[in-house]
Specification:
By secondary structure, the protein is α/β, with parallel strands linked by helices. The protein folds into three domains: 345 residues, Na+/H+ antiporter like fold (Up-down Bundle); 154 residues, Rossmann fold (3-Layer(aba) Sandwich); 146 residues, Rossmann fold (3-Layer(aba) Sandwich), CATH 3.40.50.620. Helix content is 63%, strand content 9%. The radius of gyration is 31 Å and the shape is elongated.
């Protein structure tokens, strides 16, 4: 059966029910607003918008184009021309009925700006730095000047209020200078150029354009609301905006993170984090309204702060994104399409002006971005790719046009012209950008960086978001806190310290120990100097108020992806872990890091550096252990020794040592390459015809290592077990041991001894 776009996306069902909806709407018309019509409007906009969006994506265009076309098809441009009675019945222009759907659309604008802010990567902007700023300034000034001049020469008939021509000209300049960061990012991501140098510059420039554009729009909104160029009100708006941004990106950043963390860790209701995010967005939107600028700026900044939260889990992000994409986007952009009456373009003068607007917008943005790229140090091909990407207006342009129409800066005809320009430039951008990017070769430095980032994408430590540290009042706990602090400090991860040694009734007596663990974590994090943001670790302390297993289980529900355990007694008799360790492991399904302090770390649990030994075998869990060892060596300015043991059970060894060494050498080379990526000095050792545990213990006795890091599998059994090698090393080692496990138990037959 062949794929049918109309059937698969529900456009045929939408068309079939259109007649029924029209008849019902006509029969049920009354003076007051109708809930039936509201639901019918939403159903049609979502069905047709999502359907056409699906088709657009299949032919290489952004889905927002389909959602805009849905409104055009259902509006006066097509349905109103072919069947005006049905169009007027389903989308009546009565103020009460229109206000119902417009209210949803207005809130949709805020949510769209929230999503845009969440997708804004300020780290990327800081990374490309001066180049993106220089390019953005040039890419804004040229089209802004073109749009401003065009606004000054527009016929009075196109302006709702010719006396406010200055405001309209400023608005036109802003509309022509801004780009759609969402459309740009989607195409760059589809081309696998998001991590390429030029891809990062393109996206960062679009982010800066968007940010500057929304600030300008906020000021223009203040101008429009006063109906004149009141320098006092403009100064108030500019100053208020500056103070709002300054407070948001200092105190606000910390406050947003704390609120999201508090909601995630303390509220038990459904989707508490999404609730807090929506409340933050609404509050910041109201604040910007109170200082005299548009609410979109508050929503946009709220999105940036939410997106920077280190514990915004993928599930929360996907849920919020799904709600906005599936409901609010097709409704908002559909209504924008409804408001654009393309039938007015039958007027030759308006059609010519629209064509002129498209040309001026394209030439101005393309030329400005190209000049900015050249000034910013890009070559000709890179500048062409940048200019091609910046020309897409997309959803951002439609939002701006909608705001202009709502505040009376744009007339209905001018709004239609701008929406048409947004559709044309957006549809032209993807093929132009793809063609430009396909011709860009990759230099050696860029290739090396991309290889490292691709490796980190698959890695364990690089993808950690929230470690949990479970400790008591022992020396072992202090050493575990140091290890956890080094891991968290690598990328400034927030960490929660759960005290499992005392109940709440003993909390006051143990207060000094609790604070000491927090201090140890922070001090360890501050020793990490490889990342500019490292060391900025937020530490939260929690005290066990229930049984051990229940306390760990309650914390595990909060989205931690690594549990570091440091308690006084780890090993029990009869090849078993201590009962506390087993209770902790039973309630945490993710990766475990069990720390056992021995040797010099019993006297100095916070060492100046670590001398690490890591056994490798080529397995996935072994690579995880090696990755953690490399991270600790890098963070703690330590040294690393890697050992591979080829036992007599290895097939390579049975066929002969000379033939078997190729695999072992390859495994050691992989470990060396891993260490080299992070500039960690490494010593490799190959031992043949020894049992793994004997070889590892001998290596400990004959070298000056003070920590053994072993990647281990959880083995399915009636008790916690990591296999014979881990058990032997854990019991017989004279130096500290760190066991790093996977998150799932494996059958004993599938796990190595």
């Amino acid at each position: 059966m062949q794929w049918s776009p109309l059937r698969s996306v529900g456009l045929v069902p939408a068309a079939l029910v259109l007649t029924t909806l029209a008849a019902s709407a006509e029969a049920g018309k009354s003076a007051g607003p109708s809930e039936f019509l509201l639901v019918a409007q939403i159903v049609l906009l979502i069905a047709v918008g999502r359907g056409l969006g699906e088709i657009m994506q299949r032919i290489g265009q952004p889905s927002v184009i389909g959602e805009l076309l849905a409104g055009i098809l259902l509006g006066p441009s097509l349905l109103g021309w072919l069947w005006p009675e049905a169009q007027h019945a389903i989308f009546p222009k009565t103020p009460e009925q229109k206000a119902m759907i417009d209210g949803i659309a207005q809130f949709g604008i805020l949510l769209l700006l929230l999503l845009t802010g969440m997708e804004t990567d300020l780290k990327l902007v800081r990374k490309v730095g001066k180049a993106a700023i220089a390019i953005s300034i040039a890419g804004i000034l040229v089209p802004f000047a073109c749009g401003f001049v065009l606004g000054e020469f527009l016929p009075d008939a196109l302006l709702p209020n010719p006396q406010q021509r200055l405001v309209a000209s400023l608005f036109m300049g802003t509309a022509l200078s801004i780009s759609s960061v969402k459309i740009v990012a989607v195409v760059v991501r589809e081309m696998n150029f998001m991590r390429r140098d030029v891809g990062q510059i393109i996206v960062a420039t679009a982010v800066i354009d968007d940010t500057i554009g929304w600030i300008i729009i906020a000021v223009i909104f203040s101008l429009a609301s006063h109906n004149t160029l009141d320098l006092g009100s403009v100064a108030k708006a500019v100053l208020g905006t500056a103070v709002f941004l300054a407070v948001s990106f200092t105190i606000g950043r910390r406050l947003v993170f704390q609120l999201i963390r508090w909601a995630n860790d303390n509220l038990v209701s459904s989707a508490p984090v999404i609730t807090v995010i929506l409340l933050l967005m609404g509050t910041m939107a109201l604040i910007t309204h109170l200082i005299g600028v548009h609410t979109v700026l508050g929503a946009f900044v709220a999105g940036i702060l939410v997106g920077e939260s280190p514990i915004l889990t993928r599930q929360i992000d996907e849920r919020l994104r799904g709600l906005i994409s599936s409901f609010f986007m097709p409704v908002f952009f559909g209504l924008a399409g409804l408001a654009a009456d393309l039938s007015v373009l039958r007027d030759p003068n308006l059609l010519m002006l629209t064509g002129l607007l498209v040309v001026i917008a394209s030439v101005g943005k393309f030329g400005g971005a190209f000049v900015g790229g050249t000034v910013g140090g890009l070559n000709t091909r890179e500048s062409l790719a940048l200019a091609s990407g910046m020309n897409a207006r997309g959803s951002t342009e439609v939002i701006i046009a909608t705001i202009g129409l709502s505040i009376g800066v744009l007339s209905q005809n001018l709004f239609t012209m701008i929406v048409t320009m947004a559709i044309v430039t957006t549809m032209a951008m993807p093929p132009m950008l793809r063609a430009a990017l396909a011709r860009l070769p990759m230099n050696k430095a860029e290739e090396e960086r991309l290889e490292r980032e691709e490796f980190e994408k698959r890695g364990f430590v690089a993808n950690l978001e929230r470690p949990l540290l479970a400790v008591d009042e022992s020396i072992n706990a202090t050493f575990a806190a140091h290890v956890a602090g080094l891991i968290a400090g690598m990328r400034g991860l927030p960490i929660t310290v759960l005290h499992v040694g005392k109940r709440a009734a003993q909390q006051d007596r143990g207060r000094d120990e609790e604070e000491s663990h927090e201090a140890v974590v922070k001090r360890a994090a501050e020793t990490v100097a490889s990342d500019p943001e490292a060391g900025n670790v937020d530490v939260t302390t929690r005290v066990r108020r229930s049984d051990l297993g229940e306390a760990v289980g309650d914390e595990a529900k909060k989205g931690f992806d690594l549990l570091v355990v440091g308690i006084d007694k780890v090993i029990a008799t009869k090849d078993r872990f201590d009962r506390k360790i087993e209770d902790i492991a039973a309630e945490f399904e993710g990766p475990l890091a069990i720390v056992v302090a021995k040797g010099r770390h019993l006297k100095q649990p916070v060492p100046d550096g670590l001398k690490i030994l890591v056994p490798v075998s080529g397995s996935a869990v072994s690579k995880r252990g090696a990755e953690v060892a490399v991270a600790l060596a890098q963070a703690g300015s330590g040294s690393l020794r890697v050992i591979y043991v080829a036992t007599t059970r290895d097939k390579g060894a049975q066929r002969g040592v000379s033939r078997g060494l190729s695999q072992e050498t390859g495994i050691l080379k992989d470990a060396s390459d891993l260490a080299a990526r992070y500039d960690v000095d490494i010593t490799t050792t190959l031992r043949v015809n020894r049992s793994p545990e004997a070889a590892i213990l001998r290596e400990i006795d004959t070298t000056d290592v003070d920590l053994v890091v072993i990647g281990v599998d959880r083995i399915q059994a009636d008790h916690l077990s990591f296999g014979g090698v881990a058990d032997a090393v854990l019991r017989q080692s004279k130096v500290s041991v760190l066991l790093v496990s996977n998150g799932e138990a494996r059958p004993a037959s599938a796990a190595k001894a």
